[in-house]
């Protein structure tokens, strides 16, 4: 983002151009590797321009960026037309899903967004003998369990254990389970999974599935009546800017990875914690409402490989990301409008 009232030149290599009816989304790599993107008003934007050099002139007025450009030596829109507003664009750089709540996640090139959020995200969960959800907060060894979706199966891997393959669909009777204050019905899974997971974790537990016909509404203080979520803590999606992690790592003696914070969407090209000021964004054909900041539990303080406490992540966040309620905030919870696909590299447009 260019400081208000100033202009700057952005120069770099065009990575992609996506045509619209009267403008084009252009993704650009700057000389130091930073990827930026923007909508060029009425630029023809042929895909053949990918790989050529581009120079963008950016000016910000009243919080809105306008762009004029020179692509492959040809000038387009040397003025800033008031009727063609260029909003802020950033880049969707990483996607994650977490099939089983609080087990290891999967980095993806594409996420399909369904009615409850990313398809197969927190669709399964571990519960204790009383039906209450288990996470790394109580069972840090859950951080060591990998799970993969292969055909119609779930495949589990853990240190010192033979892999376990079970059908991903539920079997047997339904049972009542609890996620925080929400009580709902879930479907039991193959008893072999219960035994394998109980043995590794050292406590009795069951693997359960979120049935298609069960609905769990999102907290109405933040959501609309038709918003729903699976077994995630409270919201279907979590977004964090890469710059927010970079700013944290500058304060740490030992840098940490983004997976400590378990986001679904990572956005690059914006300022650290720019997402705190966003209210509505668009990625591809989907719009998202930024519902509330994500308050952090102890899990980011755990090494995602071992589940053991490592480093001073929480203590460092306490020094600059503590809210008035004394909670730590890092990232933003999202609510989605509609269904569709997200793909790494898509422009992220801030609408409000």
- The CATH topology of the largest domain corresponds to M1 Pyruvate Kinase, Domain 3
- N-C termini distance: 15 Å
Strand content: 35-45%
The overall pLDDT average reads 84
Write the layout of secondary structure elements.
Elements: E1 7-19, E2 23-29, E3 35-41, E4 53-61, E5 64-71, E6 74-76, E7 89-97, E8 106-108, E9 110-114, E10 117-118, E11 124-127, E12 146-150, E13 153-157, E14 164-167, E15 174-179, E16 182-188, H1 191-201, E17 206-209, E18 237-241, H2 242-249, E19 265-268, E20 280-283, E21 286-295, H3 313-318, E22 329-337, E23 340-343, E24 347-350
Parallel strand pairs: 18-19
Antiparallel strand pairs: 1-2, 1-4, 2-3, 4-5, 5-6, 7-8, 7-19, 7-24, 9-10, 9-23, 11-17, 12-13, 13-14, 15-16, 16-17, 18-22, 20-21, 20-24, 21-22
What this model shows, in words?
This protein folds into three domains: 81 residues, OB fold (Dihydrolipoamide Acetyltransferase, E2P); 137 residues, M1 Pyruvate Kinase, Domain 3 (Beta Barrel); 87 residues, no CATH class. 7% of the residues lie in helices and 40% in strands. The strands form five sheets. Strands 7-19-18-22-21-20-24 form a seven-stranded mixed barrel. The chain has a six-stranded antiparallel beta sheet with strand order 3-2-1-4-5-6, with no helix packed on it. α2 links the parallel β18 and β19.
In short:
This protein has 352 residues and is mostly beta strands. The chain is built from 3 helices and 24 strands.
Can you tag this structure with a few keywords?
352 residues; globular; mainly beta; 7-stranded mixed beta barrel; 7% helix; single chain; disordered N terminus; 6-stranded antiparallel β-sheet; M1 Pyruvate Kinase, Domain 3; OB fold (Dihydrolipoamide Acetyltransferase, E2P)
